[in-house]
Amino acid sequence: LVGRWTLGHRFNVAFLLGLLIGIGFLTVKAYFKDREDEGYVAAVKQADLAAERVPELVEAYGIGFEGAAQLVRDDPFLQGPRLFARHCAACHRYNEHDGTGRELFEERDQKKVKVEPTAADLGNFGTKEWIVSLVSDYPMHFEALKNAAWYQELQREKQAQGEDFDKPFLDLDETEDTSTMAGWTAQSREILNSPEGREALEAVAAYIVANSGRADLQVSDATLVERGAELFDSADWPGGELADGISCSGCHTLEAGKPGPEPDEDGSGIPILTGYGGRRWLEHFISDPAKHYGEKNQMPAYNDRLSDKDLQLLTRWMSGEYHPTKVSRK
C-alpha cells in the first residue's frame, strides 16, 4: 500500500538504494579486510594451488572412489607445507616463511613486527649449498639458535656461574675446542675458505648429496663424487691439514649406498650422515633428534606428535619425493 503513494514510492526507492549502498560498502570493507588478513590470503593461495595441482594428480593416479579430495589429502606437495607450518614453523622457516608462503608477525608494543626464527631456515636443507654453508661457517649458519629461549637461559646461567658458555655440538661461538663443530670449523676456516679448500668442500658436499637418495638432487659428476668420498675420510686437504687432523669421518658416520639410518641407530651426540637429507634420514631425525644430538638436543621428538602418514607427507615434501609438478608456489 505504501508503494502506491508517491511519497511511499520514493521511500521504497530510497530504502532500496540505501540498502544497496550499505551492501556495497560492507562488501568493499570485507574485501580490503580479507586482503590484509594473512591467514585468509594464505588459505586462498593454498586453495588455488590445489585447484592447479589436482589435474596433474588425476592424470597420474586417476580418481578413486573417495574422489579428488583424497588425492589432495595424500599429496606431499600440497600437504607438506601445511604440516611444516603447523609443526615446524614455530622455530624454523622455509625460505623465510612458514612453508605455505606466509611470513610470521606478532604484535609488540602496538607494532607489527616479524617473528624471529629460533632455528635454521630449511628452505635449501640437504643441498650442496646447505652443506657448504654449514661446514664453512657453522656459527653463522645456525645463528638463529641464539634467538631461542633455552639458549639465552643457558647462557645467562653459565655467565652467572662465571663459566664460559660451551654447549658441545650446538655451540655457536668460535672456540679452540675442535671436539665441537663450531670449534672445528673455526680452526679449519683458513683451509675451508681457500680456493682449493672450497673446491674440496664442494666435492665432499657432492658426495654426501649423492648418497642422500634424493631424486631431486642428483649429482651427475661421478668423478667429483669419488673425490668427495676420498676427502670425507681424509684430513689432508688441498691447502693444508684440517683442525687437529680430524676428517669428516673422524666424527660422522656415512654408509654409502644406504637410504638412511636404521630405526634404532644412535649417533651418540653426533649427527649421522647416512642418507643425509633424504626421506629416510628425515624420518629418523624428526622422530627422535636426540639420536643425532644426544643429551644436548633441544628439539622435541615427533614420533608421538605426528602420525606415520603425516611424517611421510612432511618428509617426502622436504626431500622432493612427490609426483612432478609445473605448479609454482610464487
**Unreliable sequence segments:** none
By helix and strand content, what is the structural category?
mainly alpha
Shape summary: elongated
How much strand content do the residues show?
A: under 5%
- Counted by DSSP, the helix tally is 13
Layout of helices and strands:
Layout: H1 6-36, H2 38-61, H3 68-73, H4 76-87, E1 105-108, E2 111-114, H5 128-136, H6 138-141, H7 149-160, H8 181-192, H9 195-210, H10 222-232, E3 236-237, E4 240-241, H11 279-287, H12 290-293, H13 308-318
Antiparallel strand pairs: 1-2, 3-4
If you had to describe this structure to a student in words, what would you say it looks like?
This protein has 13 helices and four strands. It has a two-stranded antiparallel sheet with strand order 1-2. A two-stranded antiparallel ribbon has the order 3-4.
Short description:
It is built from 13 helices and four strands. The protein is mainly alpha-helical. α5 (128-136) crosses α9, α9 (195-210) packs across α10 (222-232) and α11 crosses α13.
What would the keywords be for this entry?
single chain; mainly alpha; two-stranded antiparallel sheet; 330 residues; 4% strand; 13 helices
